[in-house]
Amino acid sequence: MSNEQPLPGSVDAGSHNADESFHHQSPRATLTQLAGRKSVWMIWLVSYGVWIFLAFMAGSSMYRFNVLFGSPSGSLWEQVRLPLINYLIFATFTPVLLQISLRYPIERSNWRWRSLLYCAGALVFAIGHALVRMLVYPVIDPMTKQAFPLGWSLFGRLFLYNFLDDCIAVYLPVVAIAHVLWYYHEFRDRDLRTSQLETRLAQAQLKALKSQLQPHFLFNTLHSISTLMLTNVQAADTMLVRLSDLLRMSLENNTVQETTLNREMQFVNGYLEIEKMRFGERLQVQCDVHPDTLGARVPHLLLQPLVENAIRHGASRRAEGGEVWINSFRRDDELLLEVGDNGPGFSPNPEWNAKHGLGLNATRERLRGFYGERQRLDINSAPGRGTIISVQIPFSVGRVPVVFDLEAIHGLR
Hints:
This protein is of the alpha+beta class. It has two domains: 20-196, no CATH class; 231-408, Heat Shock Protein 90 (2-Layer Sandwich). 57% of the residues lie in helices and 11% in strands. The protein contains ten helices and seven strands. Strands 2-4-5-7-6 form a five-stranded mixed beta sheet, covered by helices on one side. Strand 4 and strand 5 (334-341) form a beta hairpin. Helix 5 (152-229) packs antiparallel against helix 6 and helix 7 packs parallel to helix 8 (303-312). The N and C termini lie far apart (80 Å).
C-alpha cells in the first residue's frame, strides 16, 4: 500500500471519479443490488474502517522500524498521520470505484475496449488522488520545513511520486474485488435461473404425465357406463352424474400437482362409487387409512389409477366377486401406501407392462419427478395370489390448495 515519506512531496493514492465514457451499456449489478439499499451505508463504514486500520498498521510499522534501528523520526502519531490522510482519501474513493466497476465489468465481449477504459480510469484515479491530497493537507518540504505552495509544480510531484502505488496497490485491488463480486453475483443468478428452468421443466413433465392419466380414466369409466347401459339404464344415468362430478373436479384441479391424502381418498371414493354401481355386491372395498397420514402431501391422482388397475385386472376377474383394499401408514419419515386385490394375479413381464401398465408407468414417472430417488413403487403379484402395489414416498405435511370437496357433492362418502 502507499505510504508517504517527506521526499519531494508526500505520498497518496486516490480514487477515480465516474468517467462518463463508461456510460455505454446498461448496468448489470450495483452495490444496492448486491448489498441491499439499507446496507450500502455499511459498505462506506467498512471502507473507512479497513483503510483506517491499514493506515495505523502502516504508520505503527514504520515507527517500530525506526525504533528498532535507532533512528526515530517523531512520535507514533506523526508516523500515522500522513498514511491516515492518504488512506481516508482511499476510503472515500473506494465505494465509488466499486460502484463503477460493478456497473461496467470487463467481459469476454468487451474486454479490449473496456480494458483500455480501465487503464484510463487508473490515470484519472491517480490524478484525483494527487489533487485531493494537495488540497486537504499541506505538503511539507523536508529541507526547509515549509509547506509547498499550491500549484502545478506540487501537483506534478504528488502525481508522479504516487502514480505506481495508486495504480498497483489501490486501484487494481479494488477493481479486482469488484469483479470478483460481480462474477459471483452473475454465477449465482445463473444457477438460480437454471434451477427455475429445471423446476418449470419438471412441472411441465408432471403435468404431461397427469394429462395421460385423465383420458385413460375417462375412457375406462365411459366403457363401464356403456356396459351398464345394456342392463340398468337408471344406474348408468346415475353413474354419468357421478362421472360429471369427477370430471369437473379433475378439470378444476388441472394445475394442482399435490394434494393431501384425505382429499385424494375423497376423489378415490367418488371413483369407487361409480365402480360399485357397475359391479354391485361383486366388488368389496376395504380402507385402512391411518388418521395420522390423512394430512400427508401426495401427488394428485396417485391412488386412482392404482385402484383402477386393482379392479380391472384383479377383483373384476373373479366370477364370484373380488375385493380391493387401500392401506396407508407412516414409518419414520416415510409414507407407505398399499393398493391390493385378491384377483388372479400375474407374472410381471414386458408384455404385461405394454398392455396394462399405462397408469402404473405414468404413476412411476410422476413419483420420480416429484421425489427423485426418494420413492419406490413395487408390484408384488403371483398367479392365483392377487396383487399388491406398494408406494413409498417421503412423509410431509403442509397447506395445499383447496379446490374440491367430494363429500359436498351428491352426498359422496
